[in-house]
Amino acid sequence: MSDQDPLVIFTPSGKRGHFAPGTKVLDAARQLGVDLDSVCGGRGICSKCQIQPSFGDFPKHGVTSSPDHLSEWNSVEERYKSKRGMIDGRRLGCQATVEGDVIIDVPPESQVHKQVVRKSADTREIVMDPATKLYYVEVEEPDMHEPSGDLERLCTALAEQWDLAHVRGDLRVLTQLQPALRKGEWKVTVAVHHGDGLTEARIMQVWPGYYDGAIYGLAIDLGSTTIAAHLCDLRDGKVVTSSGIMNPQIRFGEDLMSRVSYSMMNPGGAAEMTTAVRTAMQALINTIAAEAVIDPALIMEAVFVANPVMHHLLLGIDPVELGQAPFALATSDALTLWATELDLDIHPSARVYILPCIAGHVGADAAAVALSEAPGQSDDLVLIVDVGTNAEILLGNREKVLACSSPTGPAFEGAQISSGQRAAPGAIERVEIDPITKEPRFRVIGSEKWSDDPDFAAEAGQITGICGSGIIEAIAEMRMAGLVDAGGLIGSAEQTGTARCVPEGRTNAYVLFEGDDTSPRITVTNGDVRAIQLAKAALYAGARLLMDQMEVEHVDRVVLAGAFGAHISPKHAMVLGMIPDCEVDKVTSAGNAAGTGARIALLNSAARREVESIVRQIVKVETAVEPRFQEHFVAASNIPHATDSYERLRAVAPLPDVSFNTGGGEAGGRRRRRRG
Amino acid sequence: MSDQDPLVIFTPSGKRGHFAPGTKVLDAARQLGVDLDSVCGGRGICSKCQIQPSFGDFPKHGVTSSPDHLSEWNSVEERYKSKRGMIDGRRLGCQATVEGDVIIDVPPESQVHKQVVRKSADTREIVMDPATKLYYVEVEEPDMHEPSGDLERLCTALAEQWDLAHVRGDLRVLTQLQPALRKGEWKVTVAVHHGDGLTEARIMQVWPGYYDGAIYGLAIDLGSTTIAAHLCDLRDGKVVTSSGIMNPQIRFGEDLMSRVSYSMMNPGGAAEMTTAVRTAMQALINTIAAEAVIDPALIMEAVFVANPVMHHLLLGIDPVELGQAPFALATSDALTLWATELDLDIHPSARVYILPCIAGHVGADAAAVALSEAPGQSDDLVLIVDVGTNAEILLGNREKVLACSSPTGPAFEGAQISSGQRAAPGAIERVEIDPITKEPRFRVIGSEKWSDDPDFAAEAGQITGICGSGIIEAIAEMRMAGLVDAGGLIGSAEQTGTARCVPEGRTNAYVLFEGDDTSPRITVTNGDVRAIQLAKAALYAGARLLMDQMEVEHVDRVVLAGAFGAHISPKHAMVLGMIPDCEVDKVTSAGNAAGTGARIALLNSAARREVESIVRQIVKVETAVEPRFQEHFVAASNIPHATDSYERLRAVAPLPDVSFNTGGGEAGGRRRRRRG
Questions:
Q1: E.C. number, please (chains A, B) (predicted)?
Q2: Which one of A565, B202, B331, B648 has the lowest number of neighbouring Cβ atoms within 10 Å?
């Protein structure tokens, strides 16, 4: 290309170069390293290389771009547009040639490394670069005088046409290869899994001709209580369907340690739990495929994140060592396996990637949170709390990242709460209590109306219970309204001046909803307060331990993560003392960060190398043997805390100095805690 | 080490060096690169590093070696010797230290890369270096403050103690790792499969402590008619058991092309044949394991060689493309698979290596012959003929190697012969016919006596038929005795002057054995002669085609290979015209060269890379479409040949100029040939 040749400028990259007239736009883009997609390799089949020329004077660039600076609309483009449709003004980059100076925009959907749209603007972007990709290739026909296998000629074509060296084929590919090549007249589309640095790239599937369909991947967050999965289109990263089910291992124990105990006490117990979780996984996969109306055999990859016990049980490893110091993992590194090794019936050659674990109590779920929330790239000191049956806690900034886990138990997920239930329509999820009248109002999942709205009853329908975020708000509101004291005791009607405080056994309960014809009475009992106290104290103590290690007294910001973390009100969480004192507007929610981490690893294979590197740099803190954990736990049992004044919180929330301890009854609540 | 330090000289390598007093002999050997084995890494457990010091004056080396130039016999050596025995005078290299000048012999069994003893001195040596090896390692205990997985610490130990980088673990290893490490008190023995350049090394099995047992590999020659397997000890390469069975696919067609036809004509036929051969393979494996009294789960590797059709059927690939030009293989490269992918039930993580194919009609069996017989390293021009239902033919020297296959059909294996049978006790295997009296004598398998020996009847027992080598000798002897003419017609009693020539239909037969109370009458019919003529003409035509390509008129030497090739008499083969004219003493037998090639690839992983490179250099000749093949075939139908004078043969064998063609009846014999 010489300076006399036409100038081509690509936007948004700004990459520019001179090209001889007649050069295909796709070729110009490739030479400049412009990110322009093509699956068919420029043969006018796939239409992935659509570009949008801009015409007019562009003094900024010093060019005048006009329609005749590209070759004429041709028959290939016409055929494509009439058959499949194409936005007016667009061209196929593999058909249009450069004939004069021109400005060419590459629309987002034509970029190979397109960004996946995410809801929240401040979260990290996902750049499409999955481990499994489609390639269209033209294969040389066999020549009996220069004999070579069909697979070897296919691999040569992949090397020549796609720069893919050292690709091999799965055995299953060999059985389908010859008919596919002949049916496609020596043109095929292949799905290639790109390996992981140590394992080689392998062809997983062959389709005759140009395969126009989708291939899918699953991002799965295998939690102690729930299993959540996202089905993603591996071509553009879109989430096609999301679904979740309860972890059936709950019948072997609600928290992780009771499952480890089950394995220790019952010969074959670990295998039983492995079967249970794999069976449930398959059921979830079948459900998702049915919802998305796709063939499960098109799911070519799955990525798993899980805490260490679930990680081991999924892999068929007895988790017994995780139940006792030194909490040795069987393996901590990331794993690439065959789906069949986990008894998963998706694509018969599907690969599974399992994120690395950080430590015996800090699993691949925490690694996924670290990948998604990237504390190591934060300028200010961020505390990330993934709230679940077992909480993962990360603290760090560019200097250093620390991690631990804390056994909160299932209270935050609505379990062990008298009227508790999982987050589902009919569950109370928001609560406000008037500090003067002590009267509550609330909202239930499925309705936007508050319970004091005249239309509430009609719209909300049956009220069935109270979910995790509801119980947190209820207790925090009770604390702010002076209905529960710092020690966690609910006052009596006399002490509080409201008839909503009713005796229940030796303690009191607060009536949130009186019940009606269709709905039960819903109260917050002192037992509920105790359960939440235990859970939140464990959470706080873990965070505090990391702050000790980091030698800091407060954090700059807090991120609440977890499927449930997204629904927690920052102020209420702080009133409860779930998290350390912090400016309330510096507490944000990241949604299911572990699931997002799994999705990032599914859609971007470089992110797999990244998380493998991140976990090696994280400093692990083992809470179970740290004497200060117990100390922090005891101090954190108070609401919000026995010794920390929570000054930043007090500026925005009343914390009345009431006390309902009359010397009798239960107090202060230390019970046996279990890792969960 | 300085010149003042003691001098250590190792034999037989001659490697020498000065070492500080107190240096372990094993360490000295390692520093000098002396091939001294050790599985336990010098911990006095495995005894693989036994050495034999030589004492006395060695003027040649300029040293005096005396017993006190090594440290004293110690308690570790005493314990080992008393428990397990050790040859007097030997020491453990990891216990004895250098204290003065000393000569140390490394006995063959203490070499890592020991040679496997082979029967014939002129065949290539096999140097032990299998893909699967055992390593004893001491693993660091877990530290909860520096958490890492047990597998990762095991891999670190392998890297540090054995220089094995980038090793991973099979999933199954993860499930057994934690109990093994704890039972072995952080010492374990692992079996590592070393990958193949593209795939990484993987731990396949973990044993607590030092594993003193064997691990095994199978070398399998999957032929059209028979399947032969050798069970080898992967530690020393010894063949523990060999066994063979008939290929059950015979019921789908005796030769390869009829099996391809079966697949074409019957939907699911290929899958049916795949199931048949895999089932038979498992039966053979079970038999071998039972004979060797070993657990099949200790068979950690299998190596397969096969012709292309069997290769594809084993892999589950429909061989239909191999039945028609251009005879495209689904894959030609070597394959490394899991045994489970072929439904083989041996070690659950066992790997399978399948040698590469050369061309659509020249398979992995021919590649194995090329590996075993190494024509590319021959100074003189060698023709290698692997005689089977489908013959593989190689011609070459250091300059160039050519290969083709030829569809001989199963006649040489005793099929399609009126009294034919496979080589088994009771089969006639050697024949002589007196040129004057025209009377025969013969030997049967199972007896050393000739049939004219008075003790023959008592020793030989029942005579059941005639095997491949028997029919070759019978017809060649008939030709030399003037009983069959160059055209292949058997003379009548009048024409030959012997009543042993009897009419049979419109032709004649020769009575080899009259039969008795227990044994049937055995004749050589003119149909038998025709079958052998067709088979041998195909063989010769293939060889001749390679000679044309090489532009030579004769070869320097001939190697007859194949399970059956070993039993063919060179002179008789030449009288028949199976092979081109050559000095008779330059025709040798290599036994089952394909099976040997499989064994080499099993025991030496470098040989796998070698054969993969060899096949790329071999020039492939496709006989099926070569017009000259037909021409050569017709000329080769005569016995020995219509146009070649066979001068070298005539110098040692009479070829009477008889003709029994009276103008009527069948003549010259061209029938439809099939590849087989």
A1: 1.6.5.8
A2: B648
